[in-house]
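Write out this protein's structure.
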Amino acid sequence: MVLPITEPAVGYGAAGGLAFISKPLGQIESGYDRPNVTVVGGLGTDNGSWGAVAGDLRNWLDGRLQTLAGVVYASVNLDYYGIGADSVLANDPLRYNLEPKGGMLQGKYRLGASRFWGGLGYAFTTTEVTFDAPAGTPGLPDFQSESNVGGLTPSLTFDTRDNIFTPTRGTYVEATVGLFSEVLGGDDEFQRAQLIAMQYVPLHPRLFLGLRGQLAASFGDTPFYMRPFVYMRGVPAMRYQGEAAAQVEAELRWQFWERFSLVGFVGGGAAWNDYERFDATQSVVSGGAGFRYEIARKYGIHMGLDVAFGPENTAVYAQVGSAWARP
């Protein structure tokens, strides 16, 4: 696959790679049988960002155990707008570069005959952070540092979706806690908590509604690049960032003819710094429309383009499967 990149935070570019799907889905209605997927690829954009990734999603023990492994090496150029509301940086962000190198390994086990999965993962990255000196400040050198992040990520997941690629019905709820510590390989002690909830409802045999909510919070000496942020189509990644962030979205897909669909979506989010001072909240609303083509009926994979309108700009996104993909 070769896909265009139009993410406002990194500019225009392309991502390419190979995706191996090793077996077809079995009894979709069971909610348990999942394909094994291996992905290898890379990306580059016109602002100098680039990256290489590899990942593997695999199922064991007749679908009772799921493992997810991945590695990444990238160099990403971004703008820093501050954590929470910051009127100075909002109009004059600082340019910086993130160069992460690391990987993660996670296992999930289905609890009895239920739709609940208990999971535990470990992640480690070494990230080099480089800030460019602000223009007009002679004698001020660029800033550069390197930090290690290592931690465990226990999770509890409830999943009744009929498909992991483009769901049409079912519920997905996942609570995750990230426990990062020096004894686990990192430089700092901090925690992250996240709750994601998604609901898919078939309103008609060819009309499908999706709803998504997400809440994330960080505690302790969290590196700025790991603070929660609002991530939606039409909103630059890491633009609205804070100690905590929340968002809600809705998407309607109409499969109007054969394999072709039209999509409409809208959402809103907020990020804030202090739980007692909500006047520091940054909020954003975005929405848009797109189309899909069912490129692989055997797996229920729909592919297409979305045009999203946000407060800063308009962006086009290439989608493979759901825009809210979760393994």
